[in-house]
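COMPLEX REQUEST
Ligand: 1,3-dihydroxyacetonephosphate
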Amino acid sequence: MNLAELNKVAEAMVAPGRGILAADESSGTIKKRFDAIGVESTADNRRDYREMLFRSSEGMSKCISGVILYDETIRQNAKDGTPLVKLIENSGTIPGIKVDKGTKPLPFCPGEVITEGLDGLRERLVEYRGLGAKFAKWRAVIDIGPGIPSYTAIMTNANALGRYAALCQEEGIVPIVEPEVLMDGDHDADRCYAITEWLLKTVFEQLYYQKVALEGMVLKPNMIVAGKKAKKRAGVEEVAEKTVRLLKACVPPAVPGIAFLSGGQSDEEATAHLDAMNRMGDLPWRLTFSYGRALQAAPQKAWSGKSENVAAAQRAFTHRAIMNSLATRGQWKQDLEKKAA
Ligand code: 13P
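STATUS: Structure written out below.
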């Protein structure tokens, strides 16, 4: 393992003003997104859509440090034959790859899941590295509900994240370690805090036991928010204060950066929360975004599968990228959203 090289890539992924575009929706997930805009999910449509994003030159070159790809996408060429990986590299952005194979029910733990994909991962990482991936992603999913999560779900998912991260570093690939506590329930922000704390403490314990170098990874956690069905949602300042307090208690400063998932927050909420955290200052790591939905919802709607909408969709994507870039510096203002609208 060349730690200096891993650290260089990890630092670049969280460089000031930049964040990650999560465009690694599995075929099932992208179909759901396409259904919502009335587009058939064919390989060509998926290619056209993602090519449109990667050719949004202003947003990509100024605001996006890395793109997480799905297995199909890392092998696809643009319409003119250029590999999509090349398009990404040409905009000064780093290609990465989702390597987990999604979740399956966890035995004897009703309502809970375990992320799969460790078998054969060493060999797949070698191939992905050859295809240009410099970082990878693995997502563990923890749900909050009556009687869950269980210790079994926390421990097995943290163990798998450790196994994945160690294999990545062995192959010279920076692991994005993504332990996600879902915001689907009716729990309040304090319960989200307690469960996320339990999860992150367990994940960092596993990373230690499995010899993962913290300097060569990026953490992708949820923010501390109330569940979507909660009677009382937490305000922007409360989310920022609780998230930073928790991360300071759980994430060693050796980790170069933390790139949040958006997890079902609205576009503007995800930006406002990130901005409020960066305004607090005096943080031991960089705080940035690794958003899927919060970067893509607007361009998806604007595009709606029509080639005549490509320019408008690219403007919508670039706008969100710029807003989130400003948030990484604590310089976002709500007026900027209105002006664009
Ligand atoms: P969202 O920002 O839509 O949560 O997606 C991020 C991601 O990569 C989830 O694994």
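REMARKS: The first strand starts at residue 19 and ends at 22. The domain at 3-340 is CATH 3.20.20.70 (TIM Barrel).
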